[in-house]
Amino acid sequence: MTVVAPTLSLERRLLKECDLLISLDEVGRGALAGPVAVGAAAMDAAGARRRVPDGLRDSKLVTERRRPEVAARAAAWVPASAVGWASSAEVDEVGIMRALGLAASRAVQAIVDQGVAIDNALVLLDGNHDYVSAVHPVPLRVRPVIKADRDCASVSAASVIAKVARDTYMAELHVGHPAYQWDRNKGYASLEHRDAIRALGLSPHHRSSWAIADAPTLF
């Protein structure tokens, strides 16, 4: 199957309405363990005229071996990037959608902390639901777009940056909890992960509010 590379067509149109885009994509929403992460990539009119980096795709379409180099190129390509996090405890406390909003808000704030002005910014969000506005303390203009991670290069950049960051974090957690094989499954519901949960119970990094024992196998 031919994979079509993302473009900047939508970004260029939207940048006629605003000075800056903050493109967001989430990683880890369906995992049983570990945080959710939201990647953010800033894009301005000057950046939207630059060539899209080689190999940039939605993170799900990039092999694990190639993701770090693609993420590095993506981060160097955009004016600013960041990853926001919400812990498994926060997922348990406030639910997955609000946790995504917290992670997204933190990613946006991290862009601001790099000195990026967002007074006339538009948030370009992958998906069909705005989970950002209800959480972020300052009003934001948010444009959800289905399949933006596949079609919009700036969102693809946010996607692969967040994916590499979260995978790295899960590999670090694996060292303290090797039985769950988070270095392989990254906290998702693989068969070996669920078998380890049945044998050992939950770790402090699992989302204990979820019906984990009956979760579908995703690998």
Automatic annotation (TrEMBL):
Cofactors: Mn(2+); Mg(2+)
Record-listed E.C. numbers? 3.1.26.4
* Gene3D superfamilies listed in its UniProt record: Ribonuclease H-like superfamily/Ribonuclease H
Q: What does this protein do?
A: Endonuclease that specifically degrades the RNA of RNA-DNA hybrids.
Please, which domain of life does this record's source organism belong to?
Answer: Bacteria
Q: Which GO terms describe its molecular function?
A: RNA-DNA hybrid ribonuclease activity
Indicate the family of this protein.
Answer: Belongs to the RNase HII family.
What CDD domains does this protein's entry cite? RNase_HII_bacteria_HII_like (cd07182)
Q: Which PANTHER family match?
A: RIBONUCLEASE H2 SUBUNIT A (PTHR10954), RIBONUCLEASE HII (PTHR10954:SF18)
Species of origin: Microbacterium phyllosphaerae
- Please state where this protein is localized: Cytoplasm
The UniProt note on the cofactor reads as follows: Manganese or magnesium. Binds 1 divalent metal ion per monomer in the absence of substrate. May bind a second metal ion after substrate binding.
| Keyword Hydrolase recorded | yes
Give the InterPro entries listed for this entry: RNase_HII, RNase_HII/HIII, RNase_HII/HIII_dom, RNaseH-like_sf, RNaseH_sf
Q: Assign the protein's first listed, main location to one coarse class.
A: cytoplasm
Please report the name of this protein according to its UniProt entry: Ribonuclease
> Highest lineage ranks of the organism?
Bacteria, Bacillati, Actinomycetota, Actinomycetes, Micrococcales
Alphabetical UniProt keywords: Cytoplasm, Endonuclease, Hydrolase, Manganese, Metal-binding, Nuclease
Reaction(s) catalyzed by this protein? Endonucleolytic cleavage to 5'-phosphomonoester
Name all RNase H type-2 domain ranges: 19-219
The record ties this protein, via Pfam families, to:
RNase_HII
Entry binding sites for a divalent metal cation: D25, E26, D126
